[in-house]
Amino acid sequence: MKAAVIVFPGSNCDRDMAVALRAAGADVTMVWHKDAALPAGVDLVAVPGGFSFGDYLRCGAIAAQSPISRAIVNHAGRGGYVLGVCNGFQVLTETRLLPGALIRNAGLRFVCRTVGLRVATTDSAFTAAYATGEVIRIPVAHHDGNYFADADTLARLEGDGRIAFTYKDNPNGAALDIAGVLSDNRRVLGMMPHPERAADPALGGSDGARLFAGLVGQFATT
Amino acid sequence: MKAVVHVMLKQGVLDPQGEAVRHALGALGFKGIGAVRQGKVIELDLDRSDPEAARAEVTEMCERLLANTVIESYRIEIA
Asked: What total of structural domains would you count in chain B?
């Protein structure tokens, strides 16, 4: 599987993302945000965490206007896979690839700790390696992770099984305890928790490694 | 001419910063404060002379970048 990890000014989880993807067997290329095109033959685009453009205006808003973001939207439009983590999730909502928005944590504090996540659906390449209802432990580290969408959108996400992960103990006020959502075609996932920070037992946990292994594994068998 | 854009969270979207300001004002002894909402003001100097054309252009700026209409509303003043 060929993966591209996008690097914006202020990205800080890009190298961790690349390490986790390579450990799962992916062929990873780092792509600077000013590039207007993705490398040929890319299967997965990973938009990493961090503070792109210093979170100016709104988290992810400026990054969503970068030249590479148009290429990411086109890639998704062709049925390509996209994973956005933390700031990457914020970027994906700002490009409207995913519905809703991430607003300031209800408790106003930056929350940085490992949380329990419930796997809400296994019907996606990202979550197929888990069991439905399984609780995994993944770190969160964000100030604006409070998922918001209007009532109709939330009902649609729930009805279509597009909520990928929910918090066991909601750390930020997110609607319906949502930690991650899928696109309509289930090939774009945005999530606030950091699976790449739980991809090696030496770093305190490996529950996130299965997300990458499952994702890369799908390409090995098809 | 100058355009001033006011961006506010929509009614119904939780504004924890506004709530924190309300609590702090209460702690200072200010009484009778209902809701407090916090937003942002963006000033733009525009090389335009037609107010209607300027308003149309700033509206497009708001829709495409300055506001996220999923959570925010905006109001434009042209002066």
From this structure: 1
